[in-house]
Amino acid sequence: MALEHQTVAVIGGSSGVGLETVRRLAAAGARVFAAGRDRDKLRQATSSLGGSVSAHAFDACDRGALDAFFETTGPIDHLVLTLSGGEGAGEFAQLDLSSLRRGFEAKFWPQLEAAQAGLKVLRKGGSITFVTAISARNALPGTSGLAAINGALEAMVGSLARELGPSRVNAVSPGLVDTPWWNRMPAAAKDELFRQQVELLPVGRVGQPQDVAHAIEFLIGNGYTTGTVIECDGGLRLV
Q1: pLDDT surpassing 70 at residue 93
Q2: What is the mean pLDDT of residues 13-27?
Q3: Keyword Oxidoreductase on this protein (predicted)?
Q4: What percent of the chain lies above the pLDDT cut of 90?
Q5: Is residue 1 scored above 80 in pLDDT?
Q6: Looking at the domain assignment, is residue 239 inside a domain?
Q7: What is the H or E stretch that residue 217 is in?
């Protein structure tokens, strides 16, 4: 499926995987609506991408703002949801459940709200792509909360694919990817984590946003794939 003359909305498109997806789809000829919370950050990130990309700043936790956004876009062919948060990790015995609740509020609910709001303008036969995380299935101690958030999204993919067909519903489940999400860690700790992962991962490197954006583009473009979660994790689930 050629992306020329296709319209795509990327919610969470101001940095990391979302921004790389905006770049990749625009380069493939799509018209892209890039949405993010921080107006200045979003404009700076998309300013060099040309007229096929339009930036829209709003809080995706606000259903009214989402509805207003999709009134602006008009009909779309594809919807990509890369919204995420930074809370919910930790050993279960000491896990702050209010932090986990905030993690759901930052990722699970906004992705669902955006998907539901976007259905009003998604063309029949289009696609929705969620971005989850490999924590949903790699059984790593200290990530049960993250597994709950991402696993809840992934558990809906198959049912939604059947319910919303012929529109397609899929997800990409990334592993360790070098994005600004990790900048919350002290630099030395991040460098050590990445070094360890390079040694452990079967592919011998940490992921890049381009890797995940490539998987997203595949799911958008392949009209015969639905109800699928692509594990784009460098083999992290295997170690």
Answers
A1: yes
A2: 95
A3: yes
A4: 92
A5: no
A6: no
A7: helix 209-221
Query: What SS3 state is found at 59?
Result: coil
pLDDT of residue 185: 83
157 domain residue, yes or no: yes
Residue 66 has pLDDT above 80, yes or no: yes
Question: Six-digit token pair at 168?
Answer: 């397609």
Range of the domain at 63: 7-178+210-231
Residue pointed to by tokens 């992306």:
3
Q: What are phi and psi of 17, to 5 degrees?
A: -60, -40
Say what the pLDDT of residue 182 is. Answer: 87
**Distance of CA 237 to CAs 28, 36, 199, Å?**
31, 30, 14
Give me the number of domains the chain comprises.
1
Q: How many CA atoms lie within 13 A of 211 on its CB side?
A: 17
CA separation for the pair 51, 234 (Å, rounded): 34
Residue 145: which of 182, 105, 195 has the closest Cα? 105
User: Tokens 């592993």, residue?
Assistant: 175
**33: nearest Cα among 118, 92, 96:** 118
Q: Is residue 91 domain-resident?
A: yes
